[in-house]
Design brief:
With about 170 residues, the chain is an alpha+beta fold. It contains 4 helices and 4 strands. It comes from Dyella humi.
């Protein structure tokens, strides 16, 4: 009768190789989850910036006199504010809008986020009267809005900030 050796230890090696393959797969899956979470955060910030920009454009559209006077022009966040619970003039409403939008920028975007708005009258050298503004179109110029915010990256820690630029007519 021929001698057949007993395969002792082969099963242990197979189990160890299987555990190695399984652990490499888990490490890869965890890396994918980290990248997905970071991408999700970046998309969330871009969505917030879009909503904030639209919010300010609508505030400006509701106050054409403040836009004509150039009161919305400037950098944000801005600390000055105005309480408009009892009503406001157009200039006071601009202060209220600037303060509210600045507060929203600080709340919904990471620290270091900045914004600026610049409106031009489109070649008109005068600010129209209230009656003229109430006629269409409410504003003959255009406005530029820039919002920048820091975004963490996986590889480059000193990555340049993300910038949202928008040209619109309130």
């Amino acid at each position: 009768m021929p001698f057949t050796p007993c395969p002792r230890g082969v099963t242990l090696i197979e189990v160890l190789v299987a555990m190695l393959v399984f652990s490499v797969g888990l490490i890869g899956a965890s890396g994918l989850m980290a990248v997905a979470a970071r991408s999700n955060q970046a998309a969330y910030l871009r969505t917030q910036v879009t909503f904030l920009a639209q919010n300010m454009a609508e505030r400006m559209q509701a106050n054409p006199i403040g836009v004509w006077n150039g009161d919305y022009n400037g950098s944000y966040p801005d600390a000055s504010g105005q309480d408009c619970a009892a009503g406001c003039t157009p200039a006071q409403l601009v202060l209220h809008d600037r303060q509210r939008w600045s507060s929203q920028l600080k709340t919904f975007l990471p620290p270091g986020a900045q914004a600026s708005i610049r409106c031009s009258h489109g070649g008109l050298a005068y600010a129209p009267t209230r009656e003229q503004i109430l006629q269409q179109p409410p504003y003959g110029g255009s406005c530029s809005m820039f919002v920048s915010w820091p975004e963490r990256r996986l590889v480059d820690a000193d990555a340049p900030p993300q910038i949202f630029a928008w040209e619109f007519q309130p």
